[in-house]
Amino acid sequence: MLCQLFTRLLVLVIVFVVYHSSSLPAQAANKIDPYIARYLHVTEPISLEMDEQSNTRLFSPQELSVGKQLFENNCINCHVGGATLPDPQVSLSLLKLQKAYPPRDRVNSLVTFMRQPMTYDGSQETYWCRQLPPSQLSQQQIESLAAFVLTAAQKAPGWGTENF
């Protein structure tokens, strides 16, 4: 009898753990990074330009949070606060992104750059910036990363300033 009670209790504990652990990734995916709300002022989906034809897409605060995490995992070693440590003259400010050749101020153009980094004038490949191939980041992930960078460039105080 004690053995049956113990077995039932064990089964209940296992069911509880499995149920709650399977919902953790979903909860994490729905979490909004405090930086996104506090400094970017994004609490609802925002529209960002995807291309030069003014096609737009909505990005949720959760997608921007994923983008921020990807930025921290892949870019922050050289781009602290939107600055560019190897070349401080070429920051991730909106103005610098717009003046790059080709311009990198829309989601698709920034994704293209991240997939195959080029020098600021677009004349050759650069090895300063880390290439992010599809085998490393999915299209959805890299678009979230680009959306985070562009939103920070548009809204974050001090993002991409040359003096830090």
From TrEMBL:
<dbReference type="GO" id="GO:0009523">
    <property type="term" value="C:photosystem II"/>
</dbReference>
<dbReference type="GO" id="GO:0005506">
    <property type="term" value="F:iron ion binding"/>
</dbReference>
<dbReference type="Pfam" id="PF14495">
    <property type="entry name" value="Cytochrom_C550"/>
</dbReference>
<dbReference type="InterPro" id="IPR016003">
    <property type="entry name" value="PsbV_cyt_c550-like"/>
</dbReference>
<comment type="similarity">
    <text>Belongs to the cytochrome c family. PsbV subfamily.</text>
</comment>
<keyword id="KW-0479">Metal-binding</keyword>
<dbReference type="InterPro" id="IPR036909">
    <property type="entry name" value="Cyt_c-like_dom_sf"/>
</dbReference>
<dbReference type="GO" id="GO:0015979">
    <property type="term" value="P:photosynthesis"/>
</dbReference>
<dbReference type="InterPro" id="IPR029490">
    <property type="entry name" value="Cytochrom_C550"/>
</dbReference>
<keyword id="KW-0249">Electron transport</keyword>
<dbReference type="GO" id="GO:0020037">
    <property type="term" value="F:heme binding"/>
</dbReference>
<keyword id="KW-0472">Membrane</keyword>
<dbReference type="GO" id="GO:0009055">
    <property type="term" value="F:electron transfer activity"/>
</dbReference>
<keyword id="KW-0408">Iron</keyword>
<dbReference type="GO" id="GO:0022904">
    <property type="term" value="P:respiratory electron transport chain"/>
</dbReference>
<keyword id="KW-0813">Transport</keyword>
<feature type="domain" description="Cytochrome c">
    <location>
        <begin position="62"/>
        <end position="153"/>
    </location>
</feature>
<keyword id="KW-0604">Photosystem II</keyword>
<keyword id="KW-0732">Signal</keyword>
<dbReference type="InterPro" id="IPR009056">
    <property type="entry name" value="Cyt_c-like_dom"/>
</dbReference>
<feature type="signal peptide">
    <location>
        <begin position="1"/>
        <end position="28"/>
    </location>
</feature>
<keyword id="KW-0602">Photosynthesis</keyword>
<protein>
    <submittedName>
        <fullName>Photosystem II cytochrome PsbV2</fullName>
    </submittedName>
</protein>
<keyword id="KW-0349">Heme</keyword>
